[in-house]
Amino acid sequence: MSMHLLITGHSGFKGSWLTLMLGAAGHKVSGYSLDPEPGSHFERAELPAHLSSDIRGDIRDFASLNSAMAAVRPDAVFHLAAQPLVRESYVAPRVTMETNVVGTMNVIDAARAVDSVRGMVVVTTDKVYRNVNQVAGYSEGDALGGHDPYSASKAMADILTQSWISSFPGIPISIARAGNVIGGGDACKDRLLPDLMAGFASGSVVPLRFPGAVRPWQHVLDCLRGYMMLMDRTLANSLPFVDWNFGPGQESFKTVSEVADLAASYWGSGASWSDVGGDHPHEAGLLALDASRARSELGWNDRLDFASAVKWTVDWYKDADFGKIPLDLTAAQISKFNSLGSA
Ligand SMILES: NC(=O)c1ccc[n+]([C@@H]2O[C@H](COP(=O)([O-])OP(=O)(O)OC[C@H]3O[C@@H](n4cnc5c(N)ncnc54)[C@H](O)[C@@H]3O)[C@@H](O)[C@H]2O)c1
User: I need a surface site. Which of 151, 211, 217, 294 has the fewest CB within 10 A?
Assistant: First the structure.
């Protein structure tokens, strides 16, 4: 059934891919977020043409959010808007907290105030778990925590959402926790693939901070398919749990250096990286997720294995570098991804 969905953070990496994925599934999409970053996937893929309403506003501004929600009257809301970077959270801890914690409260309350909204998915992260360097992967019952300000802000947003769900009757709300996603067009500084792709394209040796850090790498399309499946079940009000991990299997728990080596081999032309060493703000050394709940209860699974996720990402950047139209690249990958499900 076709719906009208509002995405907060639609101008960001995940939000712009989600806009096009939902559009490909026949839905109408509106968005609320800050202006896109220069060179973002949103700009390169010319997303405004794919939106019913493209609203620029701050989720810390409750009045503006309320007006937008009342004007759009969506059927459901995906909340993705956030300050999503660990290192930036050391530079701007208050903005990170205000955006990620108070902003999340504002979005939930604004959505609950509009009678068209029937459900909501709140996106947090794998970094909400108290990091004890657990090899098996965190599952939903594990304790939340947060060393750096970003992780703490997302753990707070997660706990706030759980508190609102249990304290105030109203629309069904689910929480989605995913790990490191990769895909074409991510323009965020300080993320591995964007840094590698920019360096490879300019022919420079890419400096890496934590080549030994392990992360659960996943293609953005697999993650977003999880969010969409979760939304469907949230709207059907048929879920036994509120919190859901979306991460790849153990075979995709890889070090930063393994990702960099594979990306360099797909890029070719002498692409290379180096370990810069030195002191950097703390980031988790090992972060792994257990997504067996989503696999068994939602029937979700990854369609792209680790090598394919890296290859699809490198292909996108390389083809864009060679002058192909970014929207065509994204649309083709969405269509190929969707066809994998019917194979
Ligand atoms: N990309 C990843 O690997 C990853 C991993 C885990 C969780 N997440 C989560 O997924 C979500 C989306 O991340 P992304 O990778 O697309 O990040 P992104 O930086 O590309 O996008 C962030 C979006 O939030 C918006 N935003 C930021 N501050 C805002 C504010 N005050 N008011 C309104 N909008 C604001 C931005 O305009 C942008 O649209 C975030 O909640 C992030 O924490 C991302």
Answer: 211
Token digits of residue 325: 């139209």
Tokens of 129: 């778990």
Q: 40-67 pLDDT, tens per residue?
A: 999 999 999 999 999 999 999 999 999 9
- How many domains, in total, are found in the chain? 1
Q: Ligand 1 centre and the CA of 211: distance in Å?
A: 24
State how far the Cα of 53 lies from the Cα of 82, in Å rounded to an integer.
20
Higher-pLDDT residue of 179, 29: 29
The model's confidence at residue 342, banded by pLDDT at 50, 70 and 90, is low
- Structure tokens belonging to residue 15: 């939000």
DSSP state, 25?
T
Atom of ligand 1 nearest to the CA of 37: 37
Provide the sign of the torsion angle of the four alpha carbons 188, 191, 197, 200, taken in this order: positive
Residue 82 CA to residue 197 CA, distance in Å, equals: 24
The residue nearest atom 42 of ligand 1, judged by CA position, is 84
Ligand 1 pocket residue status of 12, Cβ below 6 Å:
yes
User: pTM value?
Assistant: 0.95
Q: Kindly compute the dihedral angle of the four CA atoms of residues 115, 119, 120, 126, in this order, to the nearest 10 degrees.
A: 160
Atom of ligand 1 nearest to the CA of 57: 33
Ligand 1 in reach of 125 Cβ (< 6 A)? yes
Please give the share of the chain, as a percent, with pLDDT higher than 90: 85
Q: Would you say the CB of residue 88 lies under 6 angstroms from ligand 1?
A: no
Nearest CA, atom 18, ligand 1: 12
| Rounded Cα distance, 242 and 207, in Å | 40
User: What tokens appear for 16 in the block?
Assistant: 């712009």
Residue range of the domain that includes 312 = 4-341
Cα 8 to middle of ligand 1, angstroms: 9
**178 touches ligand 1 (CB under 6 Å):** yes
pLDDT at 116 over 90: yes
Q: CATH number of the domain at 58, please.
A: 3.40.50.720
